[in-house]
Structures are given as structure tokens and as C-alpha cells.
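User: I'm curious whether this sequence folds into something compact or stays loose and floppy. Could you predict its structure so I can see for myself?
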Amino acid sequence: MKKNYTKEVSVILIIILFAISILAFKSYKLEAKKRILKSNLIELSDIKYGMFNVDKWKENISVIVGKKIKELKLEGENRTNARKKIITFLYTVINEYEKNYKTENKRKSFFGLSFKNSVADFLSVFDKFRNNIPNIADQILNFLDKKENKDRIKDYILLQLDNYTDNTFQKIDYSTYNNILNKYYSDTENQCKLTIQNKINTIEQKIKKTNYFFIALFLLLLMIIIYNKSNSKLTIILYVLIAFHFLILGLLLPMIDIDARIGSMEFKLLNETISFKDQVLYFKSKSILEMAKIMLINKQLKIILVGVLVLVFSLLFPFAKLISTILVLFKENMIKNKVINFIVFKSGKWSMADVMVVAIFMSYIGFSGIISNQLSQLEKITDKLNIITTNNSELQSGFFFFAGFVIISISVSQIIINRYEREKPAENNV
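Assistant: Here's the prediction. I'll summarize afterward.
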């Protein structure tokens, strides 16, 4: 691109800067809305409200108990088999009781003679019980066959289940859960999830369109940087301002979503299927600044040190480089300042920004691989459980904006170096 096109290039860069400013603001607002919606959706899908929720288990078991008692029909072969089992059980109980009764009386007897045992044998008390067992079994079956008695049995079992769970398990705090349902005017969890997901889908479509514009503008910017050989101070400042926008978005928007969940778990209980869907085991979505903040407030020195390094190389150093670039353009004597000279000229590609992007990318690959591997182990626990695990971890917009900043930053550094090297011989000749 020839030198006499400098003004045209500046105009194009101003338009790009203006467009990116509008898109950056829009992108940030959309991502903020999406994060709120996604956090609400994740909360509703949290495993503590599903597989780890005793109320859910009570609900499932109650349905099965009610269904099985309702299906209990003591007719024909079922009645015959049930009668045999009851009779066998009653014979076992009476024989055991007779044995214990006589043993205890004999232990308390005088010279091995028990008056109570003698009377029981004389009156044939236990034999009469045994002779009456078939009649007792029929009475039990008739009792179980009545609807009102089935309902009483069901209520009794459920009451005992409630007492057991209330005294054994910690109660779940539903305040956040209920607030989310109320927020989206939903009566059920599934209805609320559907409402939130529809809102997320709408926002993602808008974000996608915004990102298409970003990509187009970024590619146009790269073409200008590559083909424009005569960069004025204005064009360099415009490059810096555009890089600043990418840096801000890279720092504020989420870098990585780490999302591990059980997509589906099914098993049989009393020949009835119990299933849990979309159970979130772990979810984190953080920007660089949020991660640095978490590390800095940690009480462990090692983590604080990592937080400081993240803050320095992802925030302080990039900002210092952009500011130093502008200072050198307007005050050339600032080149003599050792710190600024190092940041602008000596650091070059060793700005650690590119290293940061690679580190984040490698962390994503590592986390993704570890999570996928661990989740796959759950699916092999037992053949009696049908478990489908999912790893929804993915890179987010913040990563790509930060990567864009790195590319622009390295390009600007090279432009400054080339400009200085061209001007330096001219100064020496003078």
C-alpha cells in the first residue's frame, strides 16, 4: 500500500475503531446477560437438587410404592402363592415362639419341671395356633385386598420413609432454587429450564452475529497492518486503541467454561425405572480478572504468587506496553528511559501475553482430557446402572479476544521497532 494512501488508511482505521467500540459494548452486555442466565440454569441442574437430593428420592420411591401397592392383586395363582408364603411364615413364627417359650420356662423351673409348659402341652395351645394358621392367612389376604387397607399400608410406609429421611439426611435449602423459579414465573423446574434455555439461545444468536462482525473487522485490520508499509503516528495510535478494546474484552469476558455433568442415569427398582437427567457435577466460568482475584484472596502463599503472576502478565504488562507505545510516539526522548525502552523495544514477542494464551489453551485441553477421562470411569461402575456422562467444557469469548489482542500487540511492537530503525540512521547521519 503506497504512502499517499495514509489518510485513507487512517479513515478506515477510525471507522474500524468506532465499529469495534460499539460491538465491544454490545458484546459485553450480551455476555453479561448470558452469564446470569447460564448460572441460573446451572443452579437448577445442580446435582444437589437431583441425585444428591433426598426429596427427589422420596418422591420417586413414593411413586413406586404407591404403584406397587395399587397393582397388588391377590387373585388366582398370586393369591395361592401369597397364601403359601404367609402360612410358611406363620408356622415359622409360632414354632420359634414355642421353642423360646418352653426354653425360658424350663430355665426358671424347679428340678426341670415347668408347670407352664405342662399346661401348654395339656391344653395343646400351640397346636391350636398351628391348626388355625390357614384361616389366619385367609384373613390377612382379605385384609390386604381391600382398597382402604392398601391406602393405609401405603400411608404407613410413606410415613416411615419420611421419618427415616428427616432424621437421617440434612435438609436441602431451596431458597435460591425457588427464587429462580419465581424470577422466570415458572411452576416447575423443567418449565423454568426451558424458559432460560430459550433466552440463552436467543442471546447466543446475537453474540454469534456480533462475533462475525468482529472477525471481519479483525481480518480487515490484519490486512491493513500487513500491507500498509508507511504507518503514521495516528495509525499506530489507532492500532493501540483497537488493541486496548480487545484486551479489555479478553480480561472481562469468561475465558473457559469447565462443565462436567451426568447426562443421564437410569436403574431399576422393583422393576420400575428411576432416572435422573442433566445432573451438573462441577461448573466454573471465570474471566482472567476473576481468576486472579480468587487467587489473590486465597490464604495459601503459592496460590497468591500465581495470582500475582497472572495479574502482572495479563493486566499490568499489556497495559504498560500500550501506554509506553503511545509515550514513545509523542515523546521520543522517553526512549532513553530504561523501563520504557525495555517494554517497547527489548521485550518484543517476549511479552508473555502470547505465553498466557498458550497456557490457558493448554489448561483447557488438560482439564477437558482429565474431566472426560474421569467421567468415563463412572460409566463403567456397574452394569446395573445406565450412566451417560458429558463434558461440556469449552473455550469462551474472552480467550479469543485476548488472542486477538496478542496478535495486534505483537504487530504494533514490530511496527514501532521498524519505525525506530528507519529513523535512527537518519539521526546518525545528522
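Summary: The chain has two domains: 3-53+174-429, 64-168. Residues 426-430 have pLDDT under 50 and may be disordered.
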